[in-house]
Design brief:
8 helices, nine-stranded mixed sheet, 11 strands, binds 3-hydroxy-5-(hydroxymethyl)-2-methylisonicotinaldehyde, alpha/beta, UDP-N-acetylmuramoyl-L-alanine:D-glutamate ligase
């Protein structure tokens, strides 16, 4: 059995966060184990405003202890952390043992949330979590924030953002253009630094499936990469598989009474 571990937030509608991560792990044939950092419960009577509850650090540590006592985990995905205190706790836990892969999905805001609400959280993520990452998967907004660039409108911009984020420590960065990227294609750029220090760039493009955001897409993509890495797949092939997986999941998206459709991992 191959195991994939995720440290992320619970999302009450089932569309994103830990729920999307575990569904993705299952679908890609790895045994998923999750540790909850926070609960996002939303308010359906207030336009689905985010209601956010951090998990007490001690409870987070206990989950980490139990997960890692139960199985020999070496591949972890980090999703939404939420507060500087949670980031401290997760950074300490990650440093307590060696990992083969630490994939960080740098969730800065959720769809529909106000941008820039929590600058201290963003800064803590950048200074404490990113240096522990082997792979980072920022979306267009997160890549601009982390790379300090105003706009990403060309493939070269995506690659430049990726190179700047490589300087924060990871071996690989997948910059996702998403629907904000101009043109008919959903373009992702993988930038990797090999052991000799040489930087390679690969472009993954498929036709966009509409121009609407789909909830859980980022979480699902990052957990698909994580599941593949857990199986021993090289990063470039893991990204290719994850891109095909999210393309199928978005094509088969599920509507609800929520502002955004959500990914169907079972497609
Ligand atoms: O899609 C980003 C995201 C990640 N994790 C959790 C979330 C969201 C967005 O709502 O709630 C827990």
């Amino acid at each position: 059995m191959k195991f994939a571990y995720v440290i992320a937030g619970s999302e009450a509608t089932g569309g994103a966060g830990l729920q999307a991560d575990l569904k993705t792990f299952q679908q890609l044939g790895v045994y998923g184990i999750g540790t909850i950092t926070c609960i996002v419960s939303f308010d359906p009577n207030a336009n689905w405003a985010h209601r956010f509850y951090p998990i007490e650090p001690r409870v987070l540590e206990e989950q980490f202890e139990a997960a890692n006592a139960a199985q020999d985990l070496d591949t972890v995905k980090i999703g939404m952390l939420g507060t500087p205190e949670t980031i401290d706790t997760v950074a300490r836990a990650l440093r307590s043992k060696p990992w083969r892969h630490v994939l960080v999905d740098p969730v800065l805001i959720c769809k529909g949330q106000e941008a820039g609400a929590a600058l201290n959280t963003d800064n803590a993520l950048k200074t404490q979590i990113l240096p522990l990452a082997s792979v980072v998967t920022p979306n267009n907004f997160e890549a601009r924030a982390l790379a300090g660039l105003d706009s990403l409108t060309t493939i070269e911009d995506l690659a430049e953002a990726g190179r700047r984020i490589l300087d924060l420590g990871p071996r690989g960065v997948v910059v996702k253009g998403g629907i904000d990227f101009p043109g008919p294609d959903a373009v992702d750029v993988l930038v990797q630094r090999d052991p000799t220090g040489a930087i390679t760039t690969e472009v993954f493009a498929v036709k966009k499936i509409g121009e609407e955001r789909v909830s859980g897409a980022g979480c699902t993509f990052a957990s698909a990469v994580t599941a593949e890495l857990a199986k021993g797949t090289p990063l470039s092939d893991a990204v290719r598989t994850a891109k095909a997986f999210i393309t199928r999941g978005i094509t088969a998206r599920v509507a609800g009474h929520t502002p955004f459709d959500t990914v169907w991992q079972g497609a």
